[in-house]
Structures are given as structure tokens and as C-alpha cells.
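Quick one: C-alpha cells for this chain, please?
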Amino acid sequence: MFVFDLPVSAAHTLVSALADAIEPAAGGLATALAIVLFTASVRLLLVPLAVKAAQGERARARLMPKLQALQKKHARDPERFRRETAALYAAEGATPLAGCLPMFAQAPFFMVMYQLFVSATVAGHQNLLLAHTFLAAPLGQNWVGLVGAGGALSAAGLVFAGLFVALALVAWWTSRRAARTAPEGPMGTLARVLPFGTVVVAAFVPLAAGLYLLTSTAWTAAERAVLHRRIVAPTA
């Protein structure tokens, strides 16, 4: 895709440079670790948005009793409930989407990593990163393609299995924390189930993009735990 040509070229240069720099110490894991470092750098840049998202979570927690009262009052009138909820958020200067800011902001970076490992050429040259591996699995391989080729139980298949387990554990932790503040009803159920979507996504994208997802979701879990104590939790 033309719109990603320049960002993908820049990401190729950065990931390759990072891999070359750490290869003496990391050996065959250098490129995978470079992807982790790339992802961590992106998340570090987005910390201000994460702080804003945490402040938004505090506002939603403060409004939760009022939202539950509105939900009960207008249980038979969803449109009225929607209007009253929007008015409540506006009056408090809050937004229900504040917690999604980091996710929306990093989506282009994830797409760049995806494009980098599905592109045969980058900037007119052969994409040599596609030949790199993480343990026994090529970084450009996806699990669905591997299964289609009969490799589900191969060494590469075990690498993907480990990735899925790690993503599921992070999703479980995130879901547990979301359950503490999520409202009841469909939105609350969605907040608890949505984290597990990363496991599904990881099955269809290249392993490199799966590593990006794992690093990013683990960062989010740790970041929210810290910011929840420092910002969201009310001070004594």
C-alpha cells in the first residue's frame, strides 16, 4: 500500500539497525528483540496519552453510580439512556472513549509492522527481514498459513502456541482488571471479552506482528496497573 511505503521503509531501517546492534549479544533472537524494542519505543512515546486515558478512567469510575442509576431508570428506553449518558459525560467534561486513546494512536504502528513482514520488497529492495526467525518460526509466517501447510505440530507451530498462551495470559489479567470497573450489561461484557481478541488477531498476522501485539498488550497491562494506583485510584 502506497500510504505505508515511507513508514515501512523507515521501520525496516530501524528494526534492521536495532537487530544488527544487539546481534552480538542476542544471536538468532536479535530481530525478534528488535521488534520488542521497536514496540516499547512506540509505547513510550504514547505515555502522555496513557496518562490522559487513566484520568478518563477515573472520571468514569466517579460517574459509575450515576450511570447505573440512569441505566435502571431508562431500561426500557435505550435512546433516552444514550442521550442522558452523553449529557452526563458532557456536564462532567469526560468522555467514554478516553481509555481508547493509546489503542487508536498505536494502530498505525501495528499496521506498519504488519506491512513490513508481508512485503516482499521494501524501498525497491528485497525484504531480507522475511528470512529472519524467532526460534524455529519465520517472522513473516502466520499461524493460519502454517496450519494450512500441515505444520500445526511442527517446531514453528509450538512457537505460535507459546505466543498464544502468553497473549491469553495477558488478556486474562487485563480482563480481570476491566471487570472491576466495567459497567453491567453489553458494554461491560465487551470490556471483559475484548482483550482476548488479540489471540484471534495473532493467528492471522505474521509472527512479527504477533510479537508486537504481545509486547504492546503486556506494556498496557503494566502501565494501567501503575497509573491506576497513581492517577485513577482516589487519594486518601
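Residues 232-236 have pLDDT under 50 and may be disordered.
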